[in-house]
């Protein structure tokens, strides 16, 4: 199938809810991917942060393939070893206590919302159920996750929303503390607002709201769907803010290309769900979890240090390029603000062989964490050449 055939069939049979680029991808390895003509591209997107180890990592493929050949699925009525191993590694590496598995980041965020409300209901009774989220946040496309998203652009057409959500200004301590009213059971935040434009929260702000949450017994929820799994140079980004959340949602890089979501529970919340309180048919799927075990085992201290170093290298190189006003983010989650519109630049980069993303008015980079220096330099050369030509 060539691109024109693919485009026509896509138009005929797939809902047009994505603004697709004119590109038919066929195979990839590491940080490189080919289209139907055999042209090779450097990938600075990793499937929007999913392919943490790049395309078709040998160890991941072997782990997934071996599990697929022995047991592809069973229900959560039974135990499976990959599910248990993944949960154990997540808890050991995060300092959290228990895990619930689902299929996506949005589903994980549904889980943290339910857990927060049940915790508060059991301890304080009815009426203390508001989730305080931050303006400019993004937590997913399902109705509750969308209700927790602090961007009006995502809300149009879908009214009415799920009740029980309020919003505070990110990095505004006074406003956030004022919104911690007696009806609030949890504060939900991203340490870096990814879809909001790769906007990091200030460490002092995060620590101050975490302290206030502890004092008021308001649960602290950290959405690590995009920032987790080594993306920022630590397994979870909150580990750079010197806080310990009560609930954490993660997904994307945990699956390495297969669908998974997870809720991590801290000491306060580890017993909040009992039998029948929550569930997910495909949650903890053994094939997906077999891949997740390999990913978590790969992300040791040396690996995470390399991510931090690569991110610093990219940030320094890009900051000195023409038309770049600033570079935001941590590790290998970066946002580039140009003095010109980003969208035409993104399309030119595609034509030249570099895949990047957008986040509001910025170019967003989420390269595979395993990308080599040579591949980074190839991508940076394309970016600099394109910016020089503006």
Automatic annotation (TrEMBL):
Co-factor note (free text): Binds 1 pyridoxal phosphate per subunit.
UniProt xrefs under InterPro entries: AcOrn/SuccOrn_fam, Aminotrans_3, Aminotrans_3_PPA_site, Class-III_PLP-dep_AT, PyrdxlP-dep_Trfase, PyrdxlP-dep_Trfase_major, PyrdxlP-dep_Trfase_small
Family that this chain belongs to: Belongs to the class-III pyridoxal-phosphate-dependent aminotransferase family. ArgD subfamily.
Binding site residues for pyridoxal 5'-phosphate: 105-106, 138, 223-226, 281
GO molecular function: transaminase activity
Chief location bin: cytoplasm
Enzyme Commission number, as recorded: 2.6.1.11
Protein name: Acetylornithine aminotransferase
Catalytic activities: N(2)-acetyl-L-ornithine + 2-oxoglutarate = N-acetyl-L-glutamate 5-semialdehyde + L-glutamate
Subunit (UniProt): Homodimer.
Domain of life: Bacteria
SUPFAM superfamilies: PLP-dependent transferases (SSF53383)
Cofactor(s) essential for the protein: pyridoxal 5'-phosphate
Localization terms from the record: Cytoplasm
Binding site for N(2)-acetyl-L-ornithine: 141, 280
Listed Pfam families: Aminotran_3 (PF00202)
Pathway the protein contributes to: Amino-acid biosynthesis; L-arginine biosynthesis; N(2)-acetyl-L-ornithine from L-glutamate: step 4/4
Miscellaneous notes: May also have succinyldiaminopimelate aminotransferase activity, thus carrying out the corresponding step in lysine biosynthesis.
This protein's UniProt keywords: Amino-acid biosynthesis, Aminotransferase, Arginine biosynthesis, Cytoplasm, Pyridoxal phosphate, Transferase
Modified residues (N6-(pyridoxal phosphate)lysine): 252
């Amino acid at each position: 199938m060539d691109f024109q055939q693919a485009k026509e069939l896509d138009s005929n049979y797939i809902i047009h809810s994505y603004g697709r680029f004119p590109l038919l991808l066929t195979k990839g390895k590491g940080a490189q991917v080919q289209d139907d003509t055999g042209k090779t591209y450097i990938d600075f997107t990793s499937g929007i942060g999913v392919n943490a180890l790049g395309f078709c990592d040998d160890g991941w493929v072997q782990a997934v393939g071996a599990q697929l050949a022995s047991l592809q699925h069973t229900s959560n009525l039974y135990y499976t070893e990959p599910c248990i191993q993944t949960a154990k590694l997540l808890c050991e590496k995060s300092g959290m206590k228990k895990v619930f598995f689902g299929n996506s980041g949005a589903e994980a965020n549904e889980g943290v919302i339910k857990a927060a409300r049940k915790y508060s209901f059991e301890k304080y009774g009815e009426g203390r159920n508001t989730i305080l989220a931050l303006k400019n946040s993004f937590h997913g496309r399902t109705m509750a996750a969308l209700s927790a998203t602090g961007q009006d652009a995502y809300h149009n057409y879908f009214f009415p929303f799920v009740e029980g959500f309020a919003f505070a200004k990110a990095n505004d301590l006074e406003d956030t503390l004022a919104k911690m009213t007696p009806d609030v059971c949890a504060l939900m935040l991203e340490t870096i607002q990814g879809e909001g434009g790769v906007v990091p929260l200030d460490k002092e702000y995060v620590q101050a709201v975490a302290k206030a949450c502890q004092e008021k017994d308001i649960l602290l929820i950290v959405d690590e769907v995009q920032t987790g799994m080594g993306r920022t140079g630590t397994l979870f980004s909150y580990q750079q803010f010197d806080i310990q959340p009560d609930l954490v949602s993660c997904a994307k890089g945990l699956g390495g290309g297969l669908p998974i979501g997870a809720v991590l529970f801290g000491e306060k919340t580890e017993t909040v769900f009992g039998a029948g309180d929550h569930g997910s048919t495909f949650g903890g799927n053994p094939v997906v979890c077999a891949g997740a075990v390999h990913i978590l085992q790969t992300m040791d201290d040396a690996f995470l240090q390399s991510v931090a170093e690569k991110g610093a290298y990219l940030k320094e190189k890009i900051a000195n390029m023409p038309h770049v006003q600033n570079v935001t983010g941590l590790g290998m989650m970066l946002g580039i603000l140009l003095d010109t519109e980003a969208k035409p630049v993104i399309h030119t980069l595609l034509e030249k062989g570099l895949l990047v993303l957008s986040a509001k008015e910025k170019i967003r980079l989420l390269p595979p964490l395993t990308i080599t220096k040579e591949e980074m330099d190839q991508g940076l050369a394309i970016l600099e050449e394109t910016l020089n030509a503006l």
